[in-house]
């Protein structure tokens, strides 16, 4: 995908403290438009806190975060229009069908031409033909794809995914990866993906950032990262070398 040099996601000295303890510590992070950014870190490193601030759900203690040039606090309405978010455990109505769930959400969100939009996103995630099945009948991987359909209905520029492949079977992971790549290529969407699975990141991301105790300890293109750590025994070793 063609990139320009503008940063679509940018944090400056971003700090979040709980009871005086910094969970994010002067985090400076910049993601260029068109990237698939893999945000890695151990449990508790501060990934979800970062995403919660970037998606306007949390207010920083100090420092700032911008999406498409809009401050996540002062410009939260513009930020909300610019982003889609798939949380780790997306909630749906299990007794409604895939299309009913999406239509309900579309109407609540004030999306114009909701029927057409739902048909379009269902086609995008390759749900045509099974859109009238109840949500309760779908696997976790399929529900994650419906979650993506929901998150992209308003055509955001940036999509945040929190541990998107967590708990999925290999087929679910493969299908989800295909959707992520297609969003990036066909819809030119910038993707920000929280994960602790380096093996997953290596298959889909263009750039990797590693967070450790609320600080960015490494940021590199996937290509350069694999060159730098080519002597390492496995991807997991690379992760521990950077992250510790
Ligand atoms: P995980 O992969 O386990 O979700 P993470 O990297 O996403 O980890 P966060 O969920 O951002 O990490 O949490 C970072 C730290 O902040 C953790 O030590 C967590 O216990 C702490 N924390 C998060 N939310 C709060 C809160 N509301 N009050 C106090 N501490 C919190």
Topology of helices and strands:
Blueprint: E1 7-18, E2 21-32, E3 36-40, H1 47-54, E4 62-67, E5 70-71, H2 76-82, E6 83-86, H3 98-108, H4 114-124, H5 140-151, E7 158-162, H6 170-186, E8 190-195, H7 198-204, E9 207-212, E10 215-221, H8 222-228, H9 235-243
Parallel strand pairs: 3-8, 3-9, 6-7, 7-8
Antiparallel strand pairs: 1-2, 1-4, 4-5, 9-10
Helix pairs in contact: 3-4, 5-6
Bound molecules: adenosine-5'-triphosphate.
Residues 18, 23, 41, 43-49, 196 line the site of adenosine-5'-triphosphate.
Structure description:
By secondary structure, this protein is of the alpha/beta class. It has a domain at 7-89 and 157-243: P-loop containing nucleotide triphosphate hydrolases (Rossmann fold). It is 36% helix and 27% strand. A six-stranded mixed beta sheet has the order 6-7-8-3-9-10, with helices on both faces. Helix 3 crosses helix 4 and helix 5 runs parallel beside helix 6 (170-186). It is globular. The two termini are 33 Å apart. Bound molecules: adenosine-5'-triphosphate (ATP). The site of adenosine-5'-triphosphate has 11 residues, from helix 1.
């Amino acid at each position: 995908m063609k990139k320009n040099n503008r940063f679509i996601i940018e944090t400056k000295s971003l700090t979040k403290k709980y009871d005086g303890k910094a969970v994010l510590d002067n985090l400076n992070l910049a993601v260029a438009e068109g990237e698939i950014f893999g945000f890695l870190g151990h449990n508790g490193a501060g990934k979800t806190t970062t995403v919660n601030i970037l998606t306007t759900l949390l207010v920083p203690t100090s420092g700032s975060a911008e999406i498409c040039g809009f401050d996540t606090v002062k410009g939260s309405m513009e930020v909300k229009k610019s982003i889609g978010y798939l949380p780790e455990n997306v909630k749906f109505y299990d007794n409604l069908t895939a299309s009913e769930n999406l239509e309900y959400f579309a109407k609540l969100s004030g999306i114009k031409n909701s029927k057409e939009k739902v048909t379009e996103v269902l086609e995008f995630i390759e749900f045509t033909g099974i859109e009238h099945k109840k949500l309760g009948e779908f696997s976790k991987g399929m529900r994650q794809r419906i979650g993506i359909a929901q998150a992209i209905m308003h055509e955001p520029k940036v999509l945040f995914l929190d541990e998107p492949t967590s708990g999925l079977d290999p087929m679910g992971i493969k299908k989800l990866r295909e959707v992520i790549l297609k969003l990036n290529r066909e819809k030119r969407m910038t993707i920000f993906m929280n994960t602790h699975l380096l093996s997953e990141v290596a298959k889909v991301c263009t750039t990797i950032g590693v967070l450790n105790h609320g600080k960015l300890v490494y940021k590199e293109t996937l290509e350069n990262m694999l060159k730098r750590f080519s002597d390492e025994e496995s991807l997991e070793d690379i992760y521990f070398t950077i992250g510790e």
